[in-house]
Write a structure and sequence with these properties.
Elements lengths: L2 H14 L3 H8 L15 E11 L3 H25 L11 H7 E11 L3 E10 L1 H8 L11 E3 L2 E4 L2 E3 L6 H8 L9 E2 L7 H4 L2 H4 L4 H11 L3 E11 L6 E9 L4 E10 L5 H21 L37 E10 L2 H12 L4 E8 L4 E10 L2 H10 L3 E4 L4 E4 L3
Parallel strand pairs: 4-7, 4-8, 5-8, 11-15
Antiparallel strand pairs: 1-3, 2-3, 5-6, 8-9, 9-10, 11-13, 12-13, 14-15
Helix pairs in contact: 1-2, 6-10
């Protein structure tokens, strides 16, 4: 489901409750959202350090870039094949030139005869695949929804506002990783439903709905906690990589930035180390998707051949499915799960989709029903619901 669709559904629901202005005040703003800079399939090796000297500044720079390509190739080969760097084959510079898609400059210092820099090297996946061997097509994870959490000043934030941690994940080029990251932009409804509180909820019903809406099958929660001892001084960053709705710890480590200006670089390094930890856990078989997050498809029995009679009148054929938007009171997660189960149990219901979730308020459920709309209303009443017509759908509730 697109963010625009989720936005229209929840604003319509809030308007029906007379809270439209509150919803807009919470969602609108120009301080949210960082779109990923690159979702291409290129491999990237970042933060390759070079320090070289030559007769001129330009020669030193050219040699530095050549050296970065050679070092990055060995690092890439070792990462893809899970082998030590020393085992990587040497390639001539002409071959490296043909497979390198670009070089990004992290920082550089150019002197009269010296060049010092941290460079990122992009490798074209298609051209480098044959040189990387069969391991290049190795195991790949299911889509993982990323919810980055940053603690700063004792306050945790995810998508509620833009953070440096969210920017670091948006800068990360994930094409070369075996982890299939689903990185929300952080605008629209993302700040309301992908917040810090959600990362600590164990209820599987809400997680299944969120994963379905974002096209993901599992969750990863990378966390960073920043500690500043005094303004302008060093910044200590505690990193933790969690996996799944129960927050399984994959790795923990610390990095230190000399000052605030070095913080983005440290966060980028933290993203890469967390990605490496997730990748190693995947190769070791530790990155299992919780079976409770899997949405089982509804089995539709085949129509018996004898039920189809050539020349039968149109009235004898099954009625086309009707679609209903139901507003359901959901004070908590178990109530939402119970409502979904009871709706699925109604004869004639083909499928249900939860379009928006509002625990403690009104959730919106889309139901595909084979049959007459009036019969569906009667079936809801038989299931114990009070049914009200809202003009664009139905609102159901159980008598208290």
């Amino acid at each position: 489901m697109t963010s625009a669709r989720r936005f229209s559904l929840i604003t319509a629901t809030m308007a029906a409750l007379g809270l439209g202005g509150v919803a807009l005040a919470q969602i609108e703003g120009n301080d949210r959202g960082v779109p990923p800079v690159d979702n291409s399939a290129n491999y990237e090796i970042s933060d390759v350090a070079v320090d070289v000297s030559a007769k001129t500044a330009q020669e030193a720079r050219n040699f530095g870039w050549r050296l970065a390509q050679r070092r990055a190739w060995k690092l890439l080969w070792a990462r893809v094949n899970n082998q030590p760097v020393e085992a990587a084959p040497n390639l001539p510079d002409s071959t490296l030139d043909s497979i390198v898609a670009g070089i990004s400059v992290g920082d550089e210092e150019i002197g009269a005869r010296r060049y010092i820099a941290h460079l990122g090297v992009l490798f074209d996946r298609g051209r480098s695949a044959s040189l990387l061997g069969q391991a290049e097509a190795g195991v790949r994870s299911p889509p993982m929804l990323v919810i980055p959490v940053m603690w700063s000043g004792g306050v945790p934030q995810s998508f509620e506002r833009r953070t440096e941690w969210q920017r670091a994940w948006a800068r990360f080029r994930s094409g070369g990783s075996p982890i299939d990251y689903v990185r929300p932009v952080g605008n629209g409804l993302d700040p309301l439903i992908l917040n810090v509180a959600q990362t600590g909820r164990p209820g599987r019903g809400l997680w299944r709905n969120l994963l379905d809406q974002y096209g993901a099958a599992d969750i990863v929660v990378p966390i960073v906690q920043l500690v500043r001892h005094y303004p302008g001084g060093p910044v200590l960053a505690h990193f933790t990589a969690l996996h799944g709705p129960d927050g399984e710890v994959i790795t923990r480590f610390d990095l230190t930035a000399a000052d605030g200006d070095q913080l983005p670089r440290i966060l980028d390094q933290g993203v890469r180390q967390i990605d490496e930890a997730y990748s190693q856990a995947l190769r070791d078989g530790r990155l299992h998707t919780d079976s409770s997050l899997v949405i089982e498809p509804v089995a539709v029995p085949d129509l018996p051949e004898e039920a189809v009679v050539e020349g039968a009148p149109a009235a004898a054929l099954p009625t086309a499915a009707s679609t209903f938007l139901l507003q359901v009171e959901t004070p908590d997660d178990p109530t939402l799960i119970l409502a979904q189960s009871s709706l699925r149990a109604i004869p004639g219901v083909r499928s249900i989709t939860t379009d928006s979730v509002a625990l403690g308020g009104i959730s919106v459920v889309r139901v595909a029903y084979d049959g007459d709309p009036q019969v569906f209303r009667t079936a809801l009443a038989t299931a114990g619901y009070s049914v009200q017509d809202t003009g664009g759908g139905l609102r159901i509730s159980r008598p208290r």
